[in-house]
Amino acid sequence: MNEIKKDINSESYDVIAIGELLIDFMSCGSSAQNNPLFEASPGGAPGNVLAMLAKLGRKTAFIGKVGDDMFGHMLIDTLRSVGIAADNVLVDSSARTTLAFVHNTPDGDREFSFFRNPGADTLLRSQDLNLGQIKACRILHFGTLSLTHQPSRDATIAAVTAAKDAGALISFDPNYRPLLWSSPDEAKRQFALGMSVCDVLKIAVDELQFFTGEEDSERGIELLRREYPQIKLILLTKGADGSEGFWGKLHVSQPAFLSDNTIDTTGAGDTFLGCCLAFVLELGLDAPSPEPLREMLNFASAAAYLVTTKKGALLSMPEKAEIDGLLQLTGH
Predict the structure, then answer these.
(1) What is the DSSP string of 12-44?
(2) How do residues 85-134 score in pLDDT, each as one tens digit?
(3) Triad 124, 236, 226: Cα angle to 5°
(4) Alpha helix locations (H) across 56-183?
(5) 40 near 75, Cβ under 8 Å?
(6) Sheet containing 98-104, strands listed edge to edge, beginning at the edge strand earlier in sequence
(7) pLDDT at 261
(8) Which candidate among 71, 131, 258, 275 keeps its CA 20 to 30 Å from the CA of 167?
(9) Hey, what domains does the chain have and what are their CATH numbers?
(10) Rounded to an integer, what distance in angstroms lies between the CA atom of residue 35 and that of residue 76?
């Protein structure tokens, strides 16, 4: 195995994520008075990715900002409770923690209503960063929600630049939320920024279509690989249609684990990516071969299914034994 090599010290981490921490308010039916009920679930895509990695025994840390309110302190406590270092999650009294109300539609999709104008996560500044910690990580992960506004955009770019210059791998997930952008064109510009610096890209099929304008995913992937040749691993998630991995010249497809037990798809893609990054930490990215890629997608798909059988994401990540048990049960 070509495992990623970096100097290890007490401050080093396998994966550091930078970005948004928020509360997902998950729909939980109605009260006796027929009022809608919501469950406050700790979330935010970068934190969800770290939570899965922590379940797999990886050392992780989060960089971000929350409000000086009950939800912000709840999020910091939650990170620590699942084994994610939160020393560099700052508290800002000038804005509230971002809230996202999630509504599950009859077709199984989700609709979001965000309370983020501004959210404390958008106020992270470049001078807030612990660059020493960032330079010691093996993988830095980020998405586009920290690129929607300043100053968090500049802070994210500074973190990515520092990690990349120090030899870390960069992981990127566009995680497109249209309501948070001033325009689709601005979102595409930030997509392009992320893709221009990353080594690992996780992208959903609808995001691929949005960014490339190609309805055919094969042509869309071809466009990405031609425009951003430095991306070594592309992970394409397609919901109930499974996933695909593109590593060097390899292309492997994996069907989804489907069951009537699915109740909430929030965090499925983050769970999938967390598992894949755990494989990348073991394998590196320099010697592609089909069997490890197939094993990666299979394991990640099983984990993604398991998280959909519970409400929420960050506190619902499966144990490795659960994933292995599902693979054994289904003969994968």
Answers:
(1) --SEEEES--EEEEEEEEE-TTS-EEEEEEEE-
(2) 999 999 999 999 999 998 766 655 667 899 999 999 999 999 999 999 99
(3) 90
(4) 70-81, 131-135, 152-165
(5) no
(6) 36-43, 22-30, 98-104, 110-115
(7) 80
(8) 275
(9) 15-330 (3.40.1190.20)
(10) 30
